[in-house]
Amino acid sequence: MFIFKYAFKSIGRSIGRNILIGIIVFIIAVSACVAMSIQQAAKTAAATSLKKMDITAQINIDRDYVYQKASENKNSTNIQELMPEMTSLNKQYALDLDDMKSYAEIKKEGSDDPIVKDYYYNASLSINGSSISKYDLKSSSQSATTSSGTAESPTDPAGNVVETPQAPEMPQAQEQSGDFALIGYSSKKAMEDFGSDEDESTCTLESGDFFEENTSEYVCLIEDSLATFNSVSVGDTIKLVNPKNEDETYELKVSGIYKNSSSDSVDGVDPPNRILTSYAVVKDIETKSETTNASSTSSSSSSSDEDSNAMTCKFNGTFIFGSVDDYNQFKEEVKNKAEADGLDGDLYIVTSGDIAAFKAGLKPLENLKSFATTFLYLTLAIGAIVLIVISVISIRDRKYEIGALAAMGLKKLKLSMMFMIEVLAVTLIAILIGAAVGTAISAPVTNYLLTAQVEQQEASDNSQKQQQQGPGAAPGSQDRPEDGEVNGPVTYVSSVDFTIDFFVILKMLLIGIGLAVVSGFTSILFILRYDPKQILASRD
What we know:
Elements: H1 2-13, H2 15-52, E1 55-61, H3 63-74, H4 79-93, H5 97-104, E2 118-129, H6 137-148, H7 171-175, E3 180-185, E4 203-208, E5 219-223, H8 224-229, E6 237-242, E7 245-260, E8 274-278, H9 279-292, H10 294-298, E9 314-321, H11 324-340, E10 348-351, H12 353-361, H13 363-397, H14 399-407, H15 412-467, H16 502-529, H17 532-537
Parallel strand pairs: 3-8, 5-7
Antiparallel strand pairs: 1-9, 1-10, 2-3, 2-6, 2-9, 4-7, 6-7
Helix pairs in contact: 1-15, 2-13, 2-15, 2-16, 3-4, 13-15, 13-16, 15-16
């Protein structure tokens, strides 16, 4: 009991030194609390968001693999020379509806339940208009920009206009020879742009009605700008034509007109020039086109698929997963299935715009977390060093006190415990005060720093967009994200709402005890070295 009483009395006698130790520990505690709060916020935000979201993913042919395969087949690295071969390989390895259904039947590991929660699909045809003309979005935007006087061209330091080099287009873009994209959907769910969330959806139905799911009736939706440009109303009929055979036409009745707020082109087709219908209609047109052009194709012995005038649709399938674990397992199963079918395991890649957007949105918070972790380690290291120095100075100043207590019969072990109790008491009090202050300021400080990180990330994104080679860049020329590209703008996490939980408090206590042990252990080393008789004899 004596050592406890003496330790607390010593705290009062050395008030200046203990206040200095308390201030140092307080600063460490506040910094540690904010840093660990940021770490906890990043972890919580990731876990919470992933639990709430259904993950959509697609299976695509790896462009890099196709490029390498074409290079081997043609013994060339020139992208222009390899385009026909790459187009042929893309068609050879393209997946269809039957392939998608077989992938959807893959079972979870150790279970009879399928990995895939649900799936939907669409198919698109490149086609021309006979009774309508395409809406040139680029010409419209350029005209608007010119009239506002905001259009600027890049210049060199001398003020000369510099033309931005255009990379060669990929085969997929070249296949789109028509003015319009006729897209057939398997269901309303497949029409992702018509989302249930108005803030996230880019398309809304302005007038008329949606076509029925799986209908074989030739009805369609057209975009508002295209309808206005061609004076088309709901109930009118539009005529479309095969780009390679002007005698092959198809008529579709306009059941509705929609508005698209997006300006991103897909496969070289601007948003206003996308005509929407059911999957059954697109497949029926493809079948009729093959039949219509079969005779002309077979008449030439040298004809091939590339020479055929028949229109072929491009199939796109989307899988839905209930968890990230299912998504990750599916990626492995796709690779295994390709190898089981005698194909290269790297031929197909599974990408998810949801996962890519999720990871991109967390990037500022992850950067802040990394910075906070580094700052925490530096603060702890510097704080521990300062406390050790203060302890060494304190022990040297109290050398005679140590000698006197030892001469009175107090053992070195109890002396060591007494000094450890002093340091531990001061440290824990400062830790508790620092934790309280840190808890109060963690959220506003984190959100302030996070806002700055978001602004920095957005500036970095804009800079990267200006330096991009373009969508037609050669395969392998840019690093490909693991989960694919982000479709559309990224919504960054710009604020967090969290509370300090038990684990953060426990870590704070462990930090306090750790600092006290480091500082106290230094005192113990000096105490064990001292000889009481020499201390008393050497006193001036």
